[in-house]
């Protein structure tokens, strides 16, 4: 009886020891904060913490290393003696700091996105203005190529912003700005005269002289305003009929020589009515006049044009369509040309000017200081 | 007593020898660093960013361990050595991943370029067959110039591919494709204007 009681007690002690041993050998689960912090560190790095919050991120990493050391120290202990409270505290602190850094990054990114988007929107507006101007004025020159390239780059900026590639997006915007400047310079070179008060005053004088001619003797006079793309027939100083017209490829420039595709400016007259012509009916004008010849010879003398250049001729007001591009002639839609052809006799004065509007659209668009935002 | 003194001196000598003779795993350090450098050289910064970051972190952890051990009397560099060997093995594995990823990026860029070229050619063909009469001539001339601008940019994409900037090349090519498609739409609108 005595022995059996001792044996039972021994078995109980052994079982208890086994239970205790098992308890002490069991690995207590690591606090979830440990894995979360490691994951968070990766996320912060991916989000560009070293770029957007370098000092905070470095301090965070050091705190993380320290927290890991606490964790590793606890891990070396037998399960029963492990105490993760300190580890949990350290990692919680790291996680809180990581969240703060995450917010800093988000704020900085949002600010960068905002800054880049604002700049992009400014450039888009400028692009649209120049693009419309270029299309409206039929300037088929290099500016269109530059505008097309600017458009592609603006599309690239959207892609780069989506990928948070801010530096690259900025560099594309710099290129867009440069292309728009080039485009604007091309347009400005061609359209500078339309912003010059002196030139506008000269055109207004020509137009006024045409009105005087119209008033005196109640005769018909044709006035073509290139910028507005209007041809108006006056009689007795009053507008009789206005037509929309098309010009040359380089129609807004003043014609200087053959092949420049520019539409001449000055005082002319109809010298022949041509029917049929290559473009329906046509009114041939006396280009080059004396002024044109003088300008041409001076330009040749000064070397502005080559010695072999010719002054050209055969400038007409003809049909074929106002949307077509000419080599310097003034084009109307055929039914309107028919009407004009019937109305206008040989000898009718024709005055062609750039514009008479001192507040024209080119001034509104291009007359601003370089670098000034639209 | 004399023997005890001798034993003590001998013991101290052994301890001193053990403590000072444990050498830092310099060979493993060099190999691990070289393996990471090879990953960077292979384009790891572009094609294996996350993996490269992990390699650098692991290397740093190994270096921290070495640093910690170097300050101890009884230095134990075994775990650090193992860490460094793992870094090297991992780096080699990452390096092996890069060619396929690079090839994938290259293919994506080349495909995007081909798509952009196709969209460009489509717009060009449309422009060639567009009726150049009343109502369209001015538009067509403008679009011709637009396409000339795109043609220049297509060569830039090829240059980017040649210089292995595959992601940049792809972004540019996709933007060109979009613009070419927009021009095609404009050409069709111009053609429709004539038909009306």
Describe the fold and architecture:
- The complex is a heterodimer of chains A (374) and B (196).
- In chain A, 56% of the residues lie in helices and 13% in strands.
- Chain A has 374 residues and is of the alpha+beta class.
- Chain A has a domain at 199-363: Beta Barrel (L,D-transpeptidase catalytic domain-like).
- In chain A, helix 4 packs antiparallel against helix 5, helix 5 (85-136) runs antiparallel to helix 6 and helix 6 (142-162) packs antiparallel against helix 7.
- The longest helix of chain A is centred in the N-terminal third of the chain and has 52 residues, at 85-136.
- The termini of chain A are far apart.
- With 196 residues, chain B is mostly helical.
- Chain B folds into two domains: 23-100, no CATH class; 102-195.
- Chain B has seven helices and no strands.
- The relative contact order of chain B is 0.10.
- The chains are: A alpha+beta (374), B mainly alpha (196).
- The interface between A and B is medium-sized, with 33 and 30 residues.
Percent of residues in beta strands of chain A: 5-15%
Number of strands of chain A: 8
Q: CATH top level of the domain at 199-363 in chain A?
A: Mainly Beta
The overall pLDDT of chain B, averaged over residues, is 86
Number of strands of chain B: 0
CATH topology value of the domain at 199-363 in chain A: L,D-transpeptidase catalytic domain-like
Distance between the termini of chain A: 108 Å
Number of domains of chain B: 2
> What summary fits the major beta sheet of chain A?
8 strands, mixed
Instruction: Please tell me what the overall shape of chain A is.
Output: rod-shaped
Question: On the 0-100 scale, what is the average pLDDT of chain A?
Answer: 87
